[in-house]
Amino acid sequence: MFLFYSGVSLGMDCSPFARPWMVHFSSGQTGVLLNKWWVLTQMSYHDGSQKALAQLGVDDLSGQSDGEQQIPVDMWINHDPYSGYRRRKRSPLHDLALVRLAQPARLTPQVQPVALPTHCAQSGELCVATGYGSRSGSRKQQCLVQQVLSESVCRQLNPMHWSPYMTCTGSHPSAGGNCMSGSSILVCGGVLQGVDGFGWLSEGCPAGKPDTYSKVCLYRRWIDSTMSSMTPTELPTTPPPFTLPPETTTTTMWWWDHDFVS
Fold it and tell me: Are 105 and 69 in contact (CB under 8 A)?
């Protein structure tokens, strides 16, 4: 069974470009590419500026990565209820934002969208949390194997802030907990299941606290409807080929070929 333990360096370096859906923003947070126009991230890390730069295809933040793309952010769309919860109390509920890029990403081996969930992750399922570095100062993409915990265990360990809209996980004792800086993304079997927006719940990832994520499967309607209604219409990159109209046959009647003698 996986448990929760404190840790600093946490996990290990991911295989190069093994997580091509990862996105890093110049404002510090992590996101995940849903398609060539849209990135899902946490609202709580956003400083209100629309001028953030999205970095795609980044394996190591300490230098330029092969195939890296830097695309300005065009629009942030916060999940509507989040700001209300935040005003009333210190709550992480619905801490999600959709980010529209100013231009579509080029899909390459280093830049690929993640699959969205058709069902929620099950208790006991093994997943991988991915983020950029840790609080120890690393700038490389880190991967940490975690196990999805049951709702009853999560509620018991975090009674003040638990909600069915959260997924919580534990890590093997040898790996430690998730202390990645700038948050992390939880993917189970190649399918997106969690976006970490609850770093303050762990407060330094001490022992006995699960890692907590927004349960993406419960936000599919919002994600799908937003992307469907607000994706720009793309112009064709090349004009359609010119084709000549079909040839027509014209029959000419030569009047002098006819005998008009009565």
Answer: yes
pLDDT in tens, the chain (262 residues): 444 433 324 568 888 889 999 999 988 889 999 999 999 998 866 655 667 899 999 988 887 778 899 999 999 998 876 555 554 455 567 889 999 999 999 999 999 999 999 999 999 999 999 988 765 566 788 898 999 999 999 888 878 778 899 999 987 554 445 565 557 899 999 999 999 865 545 455 555 577 889 999 999 999 999 999 999 887 666 666 666 666 655 444 444 444 444 4
Distance between CA 21 and CA 157 in Å, rounded?
A: 31
Strands (E), the chain: 12-13, 22-25, 30-33, 38-41, 53-56, 69-78, 97-101, 126-132, 141-148, 166-171, 185-188, 191-195, 211-215
Tokens of 160: 């003040």
- Picking from 121, 125, 96, 86, the residue whose alpha carbon sits closest to that of residue 38 is 96
**What is the rounded CA–CA span in Å between residue 231 and residue 34?**
12
Phi/psi for 177 (5° steps) reads -90, -175
Give residue limits of the domains in the chain: 12-229
- CA distances in angstroms from 136 to 8, 10, 63, 178, listed in the order given: 6, 9, 18, 12
pTM of the model: 0.80
Give CATH for domain 12-229: 2.40.10.10
DSSP 147-183: EEPPHHHHHHH-TTT--TTEEEEEE-TTT-----TT-
CA-nearest of 84, 79, 29 to 54 is 29
* Cα three-residue angle 80-213-227, rounded to 5 degrees: 45
